[in-house]
Design a protein that fits this description.
Bound molecules: 4'-deoxy-4'-aminopyridoxal-5'-phosphate
Order of helices and strands: HEEEHHEHEHEHEEEHEHEEHHHHEHEEEH
Structural class: alpha/beta
Strand content: 15-25%
Number of strands: 16
CATH topology of the largest domain: Aspartate Aminotransferase, domain 2
Number of helices: 14
Length: 403
């Protein structure tokens, strides 16, 4: 009897990777940052590179106050908590970080998770159980899909950013059943934003609770940087806001804020909160310091938007195909026709001194190959000029643009 090789299912992927690297050049999924000089500059293979694929939107990773807060907590509270939030893993720093989130969002409750991935996993799998429904956008982030898998609810998908399809699908569900609609402010593959106002109105019409993942909206959308929902005037209308510390906040961690009166019970029943160690004291201290500063970061928000509009406009003018017609967020996705051109462009850009993210199916919608650019408030005007020049050079060298 021949026993199935557990790894045989990965053969197609191994073949794709071989093909990807067969023309030489660097492996897009094995980049090492040898030194990180600032939120926007690093050394890769001994050469200085501009970083344009970090989601470090507000450039908080090297903020002196943030670093000082982390150093102080590391010295005073040690390297880690070695425990769950519900046992020995809640320090005063975790509570202070939750207070900062409550102030930032103007909400009653905040729960800090060890990552944003776990925040979605925990909230979705815990809120909706057997006989209940989770309704998600087809292009939802992997953590939303995995949250659905972890729970016992029925999962319904609607067409990406289509209020009509959401309405149609909700109308088919039993009226009395509990329902959770999960939305994202910014969809991170193409950088497009959701028509949240229409979506929220429809979810409410069908008596569903609403969870909005603002991973890519926090920091720079809305007057207080709360996210796309704030920008669109939807405050007070969303039941749960999920977010991450790994983008605008500049460290690692996840959270959910809410005004739901029973919210605190989740600390006892949410498995990805209970059955894992809490964040190290230095991390929650950096997150708290960063969140407090982001509240007042209007100049940075403005500069980030200027950068995003300039890069989008410049790339569009050169003739690149982009994920959105106009700059909708700080993510600008350059769409390439196939893997070969995408990898060639990616490698060429890195040689010239620019790091972007390469994204390929199945992570991307509709089988697309993307070079995802995410701007930072710390990119200078000169950086953006240089970035545009590198795109032009790489585009011409690879034949993506006419020479
Ligand atoms: N939600 C969305 C929309 C994301 O893009 C991400 C991360 N890419 C997450 C959640 C998970 O965040 P974290 O990195 O904190 O796990």
């Amino acid at each position: 009897m021949q026993v199935t090789d557990l790894f045989s299912k990965f053969d197609p992927l191994i073949a794709i990777r071989k093909e990807m690297l067969s023309h030489g050049g660097r492996d897009p999924f094995a980049v090492v940052m040898e030194k990180v000089l600032s939120p926007t500059k690093a050394i890769i293979k001994g050469k200085p590179v501009i970083l344009l694929g970090t989601y470090n939107y507000m450039g908080m990773t090297f903020d002196p106050d943030v670093i000082a807060a982390g150093e102080k907590a590391l010295k005073e509270f040690g390297a880690g908590t070695t425990g769950s939030r519900v046992l020995n893993g809640t320090y005063q720093g975790h509570k202070a970080c939750e207070e900062a989130l409550k102030d930032y969002y103007g909400m009653e409750h905040a729960m800090v998770f060890s990552t944003g991935y776990q925040a979605n996993l925990g909230m979705i799998s815990t809120l909706a159980g057997k006989g209940e429904y989770v309704i998600i956008d087809a292009d939802s982030h992997a953590s939303i899909y995995d949250g659905c898998r972890l729970g016992n609810a029925e999962i319904i998908r609607f067409r990406h950013n289509s209020p009509e399809d959401l309405d149609r699908r909700l109308a088919r569900l039993p009226k009395e059943a509990g329902k959770l609609v999960v939305l994202e402010g910014v969809y991170s593959m193409l950088g497009d934003i959701a028509p949240l106002a229409e979506m929220v109105a429809i979810a409410k019409k069908h008596d569903a609770l609403i969870l909005d993942d603002e991973a890519h909206g926090m920091g720079f959308f809305g007057k207080n940087g709360r996210g796309v929902f704030e920008e669109l005037g939807l405050e007070g209308q969303i039941d749960f806001i999920v977010g991450t510390f790994s983008k605008s906040v500049g460290t690692v961690g996840g959270f959910c804020v809410s005004n739901h009166p029973q919210f605190e019970v989740l600390r006892l029943v949410c498995r990805p909160y209970v059955f894992t160690a809490s964040l190290p004291p230095s991390v929650v201290a950096t997150a708290e310091a960063s969140i407090r500063k982001l509240q007042k970061a209007n100049d940075k928000r403005e500069h980030l938007w200027k950068n995003s509009r300039r890069l989008h406009g410049g790339l569009k003018e050169m003739g690149f195909k982009l994920g959105t017609e106009t700059a909708q967020s700080a993510i600008i996705a350059v769409i390439l026709p196939d893997q070969e051109q995408a990898v060639a462009m990616w490698q060429n850009l890195l040689e010239l001194g620019l790091y972007v993210n390469l994204a390929r199916p199945p992570a991307t919608p509709a089988g697309m190959f993307l070079l995802r650019c995410s701007l930072c408030a710390e990119h200078s005007d000169d950086d953006v000029t240089e970035i545009l020049a590198m795109f032009k050079k790489a585009g011409q060298a690879t034949g993506v643009l006419a020479a």
